[in-house]
Amino acid sequence: MSSKKKEFDKNSLENLKKIFGDELGTHIYNRKKNSTILKKPDNISFTSYSGDKELKKWEMFDLQDVRFQVRNRIILHNAYTHTLNALPQADKFDYWYENMYKHEKMICNYSYLGVDYPQYEFDIKEIDVHKDYRPVYDDITLLKVNSFIYPYDEGVLSWDEYLDTCYHHFKDYFPDDFKARKELIDNLTQAQVDEMLDNCLNNYKYELNQDEIHYSSNKEYANKVSAWLKKKFKEFRVDIDSHFTRFEIVLQNNPQPTYKLGSIFNPQLAQLTLGDYRKQQKSKEGRLHPIVLEYLENRFKDWFLKKYKLLGDDLKIESFFSENVLHFWSSKKRQDIKWVKPIKSK
User: Fold this and answer.
1) CA-based nearest residue to 135, from 105, 169, 92, 160
2) Distance CA 149, CA 168 (A)
3) Taking CA 332 as the corner, what is the angle to CA 326 and CA 334, rounded to the nearest 5 degrees?
4) Sheet containing 256-257: which strands, arranged edge to edge?
5) Are 295 and 225 in contact (CB under 8 A)?
């Protein structure tokens, strides 16, 4: 074993022990050490369609795409901080868990990419918007939740128990003194937000410029995003209640990747399997900008909650990641779905 490999193993084990404690840290380290995912080759050999043997460089991550995803997660996370700050203390945790948890978790996981996969040189601090990022939780608290999936994998916990464990882990450590960034944009027009989101819709690789990354600091930003969505639904001739109800039907007891919500803007997304979508991620085809998708996800969750509140049911959408793709899940029985329009928000 090379000295470089020994140094990585030693440092990785020390980091895991520091985060999880000696016993659990060693357990996780050994799982990683014995994982076939971590024992990845530098090159992969295969027989091409011509019958010739070919050797290609093997890549698990596209670092350019990782930077793009992390950058947008930080921007979206920042967009929620002002609402979080304005809420009563009793409501803050649930708001954080519903909207910000997934971003803090993925940003934190990606920040350790070079630890788990040392051949990838990734420094999250090189991303320009990182200087404005203020997570609610520290890395130790966020990383510990990764180990909670092991009892579920081993059949010790049910899926509901796993979600409940994650929820209460964070609730126990929620701070009572979190403050949002100061408002950086005093005046923001609807035209500015429309132009930014149109650029995102028309180009899934669009990177927000230095002015646009601060739009979310304006107190009217969320209302202007909602206005843009309403305009796009009308422009694409979308009956949003029918679209969301169809998505809800396939969601029942069958988790669905949230990108299928984007089929109103990109019809091919409705037909993709998760494997197809992963291939399209790598080929950079048929994708929806993460900021546009985030706002569609939020609109669906809001629609779902209002609908079942109107029916007298206390239901909500759960979310989780599978292969780095966000999925929605609901325990609502398919046969119980009712075609009821929720009360329209003003």
Assistant:
1) 105
2) 14
3) 100
4) 256-257, 325-329, 318-322
5) yes
DSSP state of 157: S
Distance CA 154, CA 223 (A): 45
pLDDT at 200: 94
Residues 295 and 229: their CA atoms lie apart, in Å, by: 8
pLDDT of residue 284: 41
Q: What is the dihedral of CA 71, 225, 202, 259, to 10 degrees?
A: 70
Give, rounded to a whole angstrom, the gap between the first and last alpha carbons of the chain. 65
Instruction: Give the span between the Cα atoms of 79 and 75, in whole angstroms.
Output: 6
Q: How far apart are CA 4 and CA 15, in angstroms?
A: 16
CA–CA gap between residue 210 and residue 187 (Å, rounded): 16
CA angle, 110 then 114 then 115, to 5°:
100
Report the alpha-carbon distance of residue 241 to residue 274 in Å, rounded. Answer: 25
For residues 48 and 200, the model is more confident at: 200
Q: Is 158 helix (H, G, I), strand (E, B) or coil?
A: coil
DSSP 330: B
Query: What is the pLDDT averaged over residues 262-282?
Result: 57
| Beta bridge partner(s), residue 254 | none
Average pLDDT score, the chain: 79
pLDDT above 70 covers a percentage of the chain that reads 72
CA 200, 251, 199: angle at the middle one, nearest 5?
5
Give the residues across from 55 on adjacent strands. Answer: 45
> Taking a C-beta distance cutoff of 8 angstroms, is the pair 259, 269 a contact?
yes
Q: Check if the beta carbon of residue 215 is closer than 8 Å to that of residue 193.
A: yes
Coil vs helix vs strand at 54: strand
